[in-house]
Design brief:
The structure holds two protein chains of two kinds. By secondary structure, chain A is of the alpha/beta class. Chain A contains eleven helices and nine strands. Chain A has an eight-stranded mixed beta sheet with strand order 3-1-4-5-7-6-8-9, sandwiched between helices. Chain B is of the alpha/beta class. Chain B has four domains: about 70 residues, Alpha-Beta Plaits (2-Layer Sandwich), CATH 3.30.70.20; about 130 residues, Alpha-helical ferredoxin (Fumarate Reductase Iron-sulfur Protein, Chain B, domain 2), CATH 1.10.1060; about 140 residues, FAD/NAD(P)-binding domain, CATH 3.50.50.60; about 140 residues, FAD/NAD(P)-binding domain (3-Layer(bba) Sandwich). Helix content of chain B is about 30%, strand content about 20%. The radius of gyration of chain B is 29 Å and the shape is elongated. The chains are: A alpha/beta, B alpha/beta. At the A-B interface, α1, β2 and α9 of A face β1 and α19 of B. β2 of chain A pairs parallel with β1 of chain B, so a sheet runs across the interface.
């Protein structure tokens, strides 16, 4: 019974993440699975904050802080430099937020994916620009409150997982912090593959979503069990594997824990339920083929 | 002149964040705490149920049995006949059915008998002698606990064999003689002096007090109550407990073809089942409605399966005694709800009169104590021995428990009282102040683990199993046990259903869900983990993610 996760101690205590931060928990399993023979690339984001106030670092590995639009390009350069030096063991990982991935860093990521560059790209997706005061990103879900969508976001969340799978990269996976063993397994799997590997990790932002300090893992699991964020893997854009999917849990159980949804009326909740059900059914068809 | 350039270092990092004490942000800190499980709280013997089920889950059966017999020397008995309030309290009951605690206890109890496991012998021998009057569940339990503490114990029993209700009252098909004999033999191997066929009367007390340092009165309540309508001198009228005792001694009372049992409790149904096995048709007349009979629900189900007809909400108004038969004029009744629980005030419903005819009638309407003369030596009230919370009577050094005192009349309650009396006697003799273990349970009852504290994500639904039952036709052939014990596979899979409320099982969830790596595994600690005070930010994720409520968040003040 219980989880069994092998960790190498790369991620340090004393980092500056908020109490209960899901992103810090995700970073623990990402860098502790990749190990010290890794070079990190981090754009401006909470991840940059958690990486440590200069000159201290929370990660016992080299980390390069790049610009917001250039994570994938920077990782490309480092990976190619390592190859040119004959180093075939050091891994390169870009760890970026959803703003730096879905929006500002999307061009460089898409083109790196198209060229199948040899690095791992991990998006810690908290569905908004949480580091700068919770503005909306293209990852913010339909009707969620942010500082820049005070009446709720009028458009749905961009489906980046499917966009990245459509690049036909060797490995694409979704993960979330409520399932740490699954997250660590996916990072380990990505580590053993060459080419561009992409993992999008749903990391509930306690402050930006309006959650209790202890609610990160719980809301993360509800995202999965309601079908909002199914956990699955796609190899070469074709082979789909479902890890954890919808259990048919009503969407209200997920929404009611989050203050960013507290303005919703019953009709809007039902609208979200229909959207989630449709998305889940559309995705579910891909597992049977 | 040579131009100087400012050297830019290739690495800016000079150290790690673990020199930063983020623990200073905190206003609350997690505390690992063994907390009271609802089953443990409900258990009449104060049994640490989550502990022994956890050991059984690990297949450490001998250790599980050892944990059981700390509080109760007869797990194979209670695994059969306990009214198991633990299962009624079980947090899993609100989810997918309570854990089958009673059946698990039976499996472990039976295993101990078949493997010949022995009870631990006392580690010290004391000179003081204690007299236990009455060799039923309360007396034997008290004798056992006192013996464990090193006291010399003598049991005085008026009947030829020890066991009280376990030997003479419970039908063999609920508790076989072999099982009882096995449990008793193992207990007596601890070295307890027995005086059977030895009735202690009230005026023997002062001489006992000269020879013994303390006395425990566990006289029980074996006198069947009667009803004024019935003449107990008639050979066709039987008293319930006496009837069961005669059958348990091997007699075959002549009942005739049609038997009417009066009463609605467990004894009434035991009488009915016994009469069925002796070949009679059986009707049970009870004042209570069918859904509020005092008997246990599974006992009622078994009786109905065995063809016992239950006339619930019925009262006998007039008895017509004939030479061969008894004719009963009955009427349907409802019970006056204005009266407190336990007091029955039937209201006849006119026009519902009916007649029942029988070859014999067995009265099972409760039992009374036999305390003639005892009121001159100790305080008696309402035919029961008056005791304090520590089971001390009005006479110093004399304690009482079980059915002779105002307690619920269950075997397990009597066993629990025997244990409680033993610690009171020990305290009395060692003149300690009263901070007994049994009181600590009451103090902690506020802190019982609630259903809401169980993290259901970690407990996928898993169906509860029940003990099997021998087919009805086979049951009525003899007095063999009717309930079939769990097998090994059932025991394993059912013990896995226990939430282990408030009891850490080292699942490591608290360790894995800490974003600050502030939880450290340390198997040398009783609580298995420690918190790194300098890093813990007090988010409470470890508390929330503990599946079983074994970590609590404690606010810190004055930092």
């Amino acid at each position: 019974m219980g989880y069994q996760i092998n960790e190498e101690k790369v991620f340090n205590s004393g980092h500056a993440a908020c109490p209960g931060c899901s992103e810090a928990l995700a970073m623990r399993y990402i860098v502790n699975t990749l190990g010290p023979d890794t070079i990190g690339v981090v754009p401006p984001s909470c991840i940059a904050i958690i990486s440590g106030p200069q000159p201290l670092s929370s990660m016992r590995m080299p980390v390069y802080q790049t610009t917001l639009e250039a994570s994938a390009a920077s990782a490309t350069g480092i990976a190619r430099a390592l190859k040119a030096k004959g180093n075939d063991h050091t891994k390169v990982v870009a760890i970026a937020g959803d703003g730096g991935t879905y929006d500002i860093g999307f061009q460089s990521l898409s083109s790196a994916a198209e060229r199948n560059e040899d690095f791992i790209y991990i998006c810690l997706d908290n569905e908004g620009y949480m580091n700068t005061g919770a503005q909306k990103s293209s990852s913010t879900p339909y009707l969620a409150y942010t500082a820049s969508t005070p009446a709720g976001k009028p458009t749905p969340k961009k489906n980046l997982a499917e966009i990245m799978a459509a690049h036909r990269i060797p490995y694409m996976a979704t993960a979330t912090t409520g399932y740490p063993e699954d997250l660590a397994r996916k990072v380990a799997k990505a580590k053993g593959i060459r080419g561009l590997r992409f993992i999008v990790v749903l990391t509930p932002c306690l402050d930006g979503w309006g959650l209790a300090d202890n609610a990160g893992p719980k809301v993360s699991r509800l995202a999965v069990e309601t079908g909002v964020f199914p956990l699955y893997e796609v190899e070469n854009g074709e082979h789909y594997t479902l890890n954890y999917g919808s259990k048919g849990t009503p969407i209200n159980q997920y929404l009611s824990l989050q203050k960013r949804y507290r303005h919703l009326n019953q009709a809007q909740i039902e609208e979200i339920q229909i959207e989630v059900d449709n998305n889940w059914q559309r995705l579910h068809r891909k597992f049977s083929t | 002149m040579k131009e100087t350039f400012k050297e830019v270092p290739s690495i800016w990092t000079t150290g790690w964040t673990d020199i930063l004490n983020t623990g200073t942000w905190r206003s609350a800190i997690p505390i690992y705490q063994k907390r009271l499980a609802p089953c443990h709280s409900a258990c009449p013997v104060d049994g640490e149920i989550p502990t022994w089920i956890m050991l059984a889950r690990k297949q450490l059966y001998h250790e599980a049995w050892s944990a059981l017999v700390v509080n109760n020397p007869f797990p194979a008995v209670t695994g059969r006949i306990c009214h198991h309030p633990c299962e009624g309290a079980c947090n899993r009951g609100e989810y997918d059915g309570a854990v089958a605690i009673n059946a698990l206890e039976q499996y472990i109890g039976d295993l101990a008998l078949s493997e010949g496991w022995t009870l631990p012998h006392p580690t010290i021998e004391l000179d003081q002698r204690i007299a236990v009057i009455g060799g039923g569940p309360a007396g034997l339990s008290c004798a056992y606990q006192l013996r464990q503490l090193g006291y010399k114990v003598t049991i005085f029993e008026s009947r030829p064999e020890l066991g009280g209700v376990l030997r003479y009252g419970i039908p063999r098909y609920r508790l076989s003689k072999e099982i009882w004999d096995g449990e008793l033999k193992r207990l007596l191997a601890l070295g307890i002096e027995i005086k059977v066929n030895h009735l202690v009367k009230a005026n023997d007390l002062s001489s006992l007090e000269r020879d013994y340092s303390a006395v425990f009165l566990a006289l029980g309540a074996q006198n069947s109550k009667t009803l004024p309508q019935f003449s107990v001198d008639d050979l066709k009228v039987f008293k319930g407990y006496e009837f069961l005792e005669r059958v348990n001694r091997g007699e075959v009372p002549q009942l005739g073809q049609e038997v009417v049992v009066i009463g609605g409790g467990s004894v009434a149904l035991d009488v009915a089942g016994t009469a069925r096995r002796l070949g009679s048709q059986v009707k049970v007349l009870a004042l209570e409605a069918m859904d509020s009979l005092p008997a246990q629900p599974d006992e009622l189900t078994e009786s109905l399966e065995e063809g016992v007809e239950i006339y619930a909400g019925a009262m006998v108004q007039k008895v017509n005694l004939g030479p061969e038969r008894i004719s009963l004029d009955c009427i349907k009744v409802t019970l006056d709800e204005a009266f407190p629980a336990g007091v029955l005030r039937p209201i006849p419903r006119s026009g519902t009169e009916f007649n029942v005819s029988a070859t014999s009638v067995i009265l099972a309407v409760g039992q009374e104590t036999e305390l003639t003369g005892w009121d001159s030596v100790i305080n008696i009230g309402q035919s029961l021995v008056k005791v304090g919370a520590d089971l001390a009577t009005s006479r110093p050094g004399v304690f009482a428990g079980g059915d002779v005192t105002p307690a619920e009349r269950f075997v397990s309650t009597a066993i629990g009282q025997g244990k409680k009396a033993s610690s009171s006697i020990d305290r009395y003799l060692t003149e300690q102040t009263s901070d007994s273990q049994s009181l600590s349970k009451t103090e902690n009852s506020e802190d019982k683990v609630a259903y809401q504290e169980i993290n259901m994500f970690y407990f996928p639904e898993k169906a509860r199993e029940r003990k099997g039952l021998v087919p009805v036709e086979q049951r009525l052939q003899n007095f063999d046990e009717v309930r079939i014990s769990f097998n090994f596979e059932q025991t394993q899979s059912q013990s896995e259903r226990c939430f282990s409320c408030g009891n850490c099982v080292e699942c490591d969830n608290c360790f894995y869900f800490c974003p600050d790596m502030a939880v450290v595994k340390d198997s040398s600690l009783a609580e298995h983990y420690s918190i790194l005070d300098q890093y813990c930010k007090g988010c409470g994720s470890c508390v929330q993610e503990c599946p079983r409520g074994a970590v609590v968040l404690k606010e810190e003040t004055g930092r």
